[in-house]
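Module 6 notes. Inverse folding takes a fixed backbone as the condition and produces residue identities as the prediction. Think of it as a translation problem where the source language is geometry and the target language is the twenty amino acids. Below is one complete input and output pair. Work through it position by position during the lab.
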């Protein structure tokens, strides 16, 4: 199979899996809180979202570990199977009216979000550096369709559930079971092939020279123990033979703690880890309080829905553009642009609340917030894919996604009390404070570059070869 055809098939399957998984996630999340409230009362309503977020966070590291040991397709397939089991548990809990079973089901259901997040990293595995960001962005873009289609399937799902005699609000989870099953089938068809190294001269010519950005993928020669990475063969699902069972001890995959420890010592990788967590926390804090702020100022539920839809479009619809920009100008520059957009969004949100400017300025703030999240998430993900050595790359990605979920959960928990104490202005001020660590880490990364600190050399790009079992 030719290299272009191989990657086209692989990306197509990842996009399909992410799209189907996104439909299941969005449809279920749309009614999850209502179902929890029906079984447990209003006091339990917030636990549904908390359980799903916790499930996503807890699953991220084990799924990454499974990917490092056995390959991406097994990891993604197992994740979707767990999410499908969660959807079945949710339906069962509604039938037997058991809130504890429902929360357990929602936690497993949340694993789908962890899987969808990891598909973006799978898109970057084993592809030339010059196209890595664009391929990651295509997989992220597929979430747009799922996010829009999922909630719109709630009503047909509810009608289907009634025809089958199921309790109210469980119908959408029937569609989620089907979506996750089809997503699992899609990722199980991901091709696996060994990767043969290409001479360094060819790799350099293919990747182009972006050394001024300091983010070209490969090895940080100044960091200890990394000079043996990106060498040898690598599988198409991004796992080198050294990370497979039976490999030499020196090439065994590192754990999440070791990966995070390495990233904290590496300025560019540290920026990727921190920016993903910070951007997500800022986005969650402002987004979940926007509907309450709008309702408090007499805006209709229909208008709230329009604003949130525009925000979601901002999060995903322009991902391919940010991917192209990251490939063209380097991920660090796109990361800086993402942080600038996040900062602009909280200024706009603060102004909308202070001036009581109505829905237009609030909508603008939410759109810019989504764009800032998209640029930050994509560029930071590319930084991790480009800088981490093979033995730490997948564990670092899993640990970073777990940290992102935990950061979002903490931001969500703090947002309500902050809104109650100081209004929407205070929420945006708090979001600006959360953004500060990313700004500081970015400044440190730029300073290290300017002082001749650690830079990232290029890997030897590879072409698919013989299949690995």
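Target side of the pair, the amino acids:
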């Amino acid at each position: 199979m030719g290299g272009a055809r191989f990657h086209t098939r692989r990306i197509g399957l990842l996009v399909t899996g992410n799209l189907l998984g996104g439909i299941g996630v969005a449809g279920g999340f749309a009614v999850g809180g209502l179902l929890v409230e029906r079984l447990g009362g209003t006091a339990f309503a917030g636990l549904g979202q908390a359980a799903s977020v916790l499930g996503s966070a807890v699953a991220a590291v084990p799924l990454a570990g499974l990917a490092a040991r056995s390959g991406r397709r097994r990891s993604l397939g197992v994740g979707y199977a767990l999410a499908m089991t969660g959807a079945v548990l949710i339906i069962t809990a509604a039938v037997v009216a058991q809130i504890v079973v429902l929360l357990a089901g929602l936690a497993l259901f949340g694993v789908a979000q962890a899987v969808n997040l990891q598909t973006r990293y799978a898109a970057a595995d084993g592809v030339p550096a010059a196209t890595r960001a664009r391929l990651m962005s295509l997989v992220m873009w597929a979430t747009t369709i799922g996010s829009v289609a999922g909630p719109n399937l709630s009503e047909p799902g509810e009608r289907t559930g009634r025809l089958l005699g199921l309790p109210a609000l469980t119908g959408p989870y029937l569609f989620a079971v089907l979506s996750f099953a089809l997503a699992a089938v899609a990722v199980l068809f991901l091709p696996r092939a060994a990767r043969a190294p290409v001479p360094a001269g060819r790799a350099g010519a293919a990747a182009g020279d972006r050394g001024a950005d300091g983010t070209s993928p490969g090895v940080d020669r100044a960091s200890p123990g990394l000079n043996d990475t990106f060498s040898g063969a690598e599988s198409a699902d991004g796992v080198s033979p050294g990370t497979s069972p039976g490999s030499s001890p020196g090439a065994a995959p590192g754990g999440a703690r070791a990966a995070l420890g390495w990233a904290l010592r590496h300025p560019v990788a540290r920026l990727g880890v921190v920016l993903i967590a910070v951007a997500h926390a800022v986005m969650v804090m402002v987004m979940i309080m926007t509907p309450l702020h709008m309702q408090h100022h007499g805006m209709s539920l229909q208008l709230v829905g329009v604003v949130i839809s525009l925000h979601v479009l901002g999060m995903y619809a322009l991902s391919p553009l940010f991917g192209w920009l990251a490939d063209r100008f380097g991920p660090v520059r796109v990361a800086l642009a993402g942080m600038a957009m996040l900062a602009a969004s909280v200024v706009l949100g603060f102004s909308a609340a202070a001036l009581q400017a109505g829905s237009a300025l609030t909508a603008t703030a939410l759109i810019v917030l989504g764009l800032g999240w998209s640029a930050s998430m994509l560029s930071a993900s590319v930084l991790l894919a480009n800088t981490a050595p093979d033995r730490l790359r997948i564990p670092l990605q899993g640990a970073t996604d777990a940290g992102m979920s935990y950061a979002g959960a903490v931001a969500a928990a703090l947002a309500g009390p902050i809104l109650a104490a100081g209004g929407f202005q205070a929420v945006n001020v708090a979001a600006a404070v959360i953004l500060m660590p990313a700004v500081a880490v970015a400044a440190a990364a730029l300073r290290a570059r300017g002082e001749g600190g650690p830079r990232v050399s290029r890997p030897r790009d590879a072409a698919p070869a013989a299949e690995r079992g």
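Reference fact for the lab report: Residues 255-451 form a domain with the Growth Hormone; Chain: A; fold (CATH 1.20.1250.20).
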